[in-house]
Amino acid sequence: MSHRYSKYKKLKIGYPADRILTITFDNPESYNSVDAETHTELTEIWRDIDADDKTHCVIVTGTGRAFSSGGDFDWIERMTEDHREVMKTWKEAKDLVYNMINCNKIVISAINGPAAGAGLVVGLLADISIAGKAARIVDGHPRLGVAAGDVAAIIWPLLCGMAKAKYYLLSGKPLTGEEAERIGLVSLCVDDDALQQSALDTAQEMAQGSQSALRWTKYSLNNWLRQAGPIFDTSTALEMLGFLGPDAKEGLASLKEKRAPKFDPDCPL
Q: Which CATH number does the domain 3-195+208-257 belong to among 1.20.120.530, 3.90.226.10, 3.40.50.1980, 3.30.870.10?
């Protein structure tokens, strides 16, 4: 492993082919949930990849039956009680998105099974997103009692249109890989047993292409996301504000207890 990646302990780093790097969420016991340390690593690694002359393309996937189930419950509970943790997470959440947008290497996601939260950020911000048919894509923020922050407001309307974005973000309904491809939320949907090979084949094609042409094309297209920065910043700030309110505590409790939430019906907004 390159020395620059030796500091990453929560993310599994690999090299399946020449000039191709893999990042794997590797906590299968919790469906690859993201804790605070993993979130920090996921935020920082894109700067290292951007500066890595030996890497042309990146594949992101998950170990076992899940891509990533989203935020770890213990970490979420800390955010509902600790203002400093919320401030730290807000900065990282912004940096994660902008670091990915500004990373000059082509990023491919291979979305296997459940994908939510910070993991879904990477899955949908990837330059090419490939979902298996068993993928289960969901933005669960409102179910948790907080605004749909992370990457929702900056990219869902661009990918699948405002009507579909509002429907799925407000309802919290999950999408299969096939439905996600149908509405344009992901680039491709393939059979589950072909997912990893499809991602690798695509990565090899990208790695062998003109890097200046690919990187400048990516940079140009990502200006759509850069100009939506104020929308993204607002959504993420409101998400973090929600973690300090009663609905987030109730949402988390209901998820732990596997019951429907009972949110305060008298919202002052």
A: 3.90.226.10
Count of C-beta atoms within a 10 Å radius of residue 225: 20
DSSP code of 250? H
Q: Helix, strand, or coil here: 133?
A: coil
Q: Of 67, 200, 212, 42, nearest to 131 (Cα)?
A: 67
Amino acid type, 99? N
Per-residue pLDDT reduced to its tens digit, 195-228: 999 999 999 999 999 999 999 999 999 999 999 9
Domain borders along the chain are 3-195+208-257
Statement: residue 1 has pLDDT above 80: no
Q: Average pLDDT, stretch 239-243?
A: 95
Contact 265, 247 (CB under 8 A): no
* Reported confidence tier of residue 269, pLDDT bands at 50, 70, 90: confident
Q: What angle do CA 125, 38, 5 make, to 5 degrees?
A: 85
What's the rounded Cα separation, in Å, for the pair 23 and 146? 28
Q: What is the mean pLDDT of the chain?
A: 96
